[in-house]
Amino acid sequence: MFVDAANRPLGTVAVTANQATRSILVSVPKAALGQPGTGWVFTVALHGQDGFSTDQARGFAPTPQPFLFGLCAPGGTSPICGIDPGTAPKVTDTVTPAGVDQATELNPIPGPATLHGVPVP
C-alpha cells in the first residue's frame, strides 16, 4: 500500500526483486511525492500482506504459523516472546534516521512503537 498520513491511496507501487544483490526496489509515482525538499521526512514501513485481514497486513502469533509471522522461534526466551501478538507493530523492516537502532524503534515492550522518518537534508 502506498498511502499518505491520512491513509489515502497515493497510486500504484511497482516492486522488483534482485536476487543477485539481495535487494528489493519499490517504485512509486513521482507525481505523488510533490517536490520533496528540506524539512520533508520520509517514513518507510515494510510488512507482509494478508488479503483477508481488515488492514491487509499479516498478523503475528507467538511462534510462526501458516499465514502469521512469529514473534519468536519455538522455545524462544526473549522478553518479546511474552507480549500479546496483537500488540506487535506490523512492521518487519523500516528505514531509520541516523543514530536510531531499528530493533529499538520496533520494540513494543516499552510501549507502542513509533517510526521516525528520515529527513531530507
Topology of this structure?
Elements: E1 14-18, E2 23-27, E3 41-42, E4 45-46, E5 60-61, E6 69-70, E7 93-94, H1 102-106, E8 118-119
Parallel strand pairs: 5-6
Antiparallel strand pairs: 1-2, 3-8, 4-7
Walk me through this protein's architecture:
The chain is mainly beta. It folds into two domains: about 1-35, no CATH class; about 35-120, no CATH class. Helix content is about 5%, strand content about 20%. The chain is built from one helix and eight strands; from the N terminus they run βββββββαβ. The protein has one helix at about 100-105, and strands spanning about 15-20, 25, 40, 45, 60, 70, 95, 120. The protein has a two-stranded antiparallel sheet. The chain has a two-stranded antiparallel sheet with strand order 3-8. A hairpin with a 4-residue loop joins strand 1 and strand 2 (about 25). The longest helix has 5 residues, at about 100-105. The radius of gyration is 16 Å and the shape is globular. The mean pLDDT is about 90.
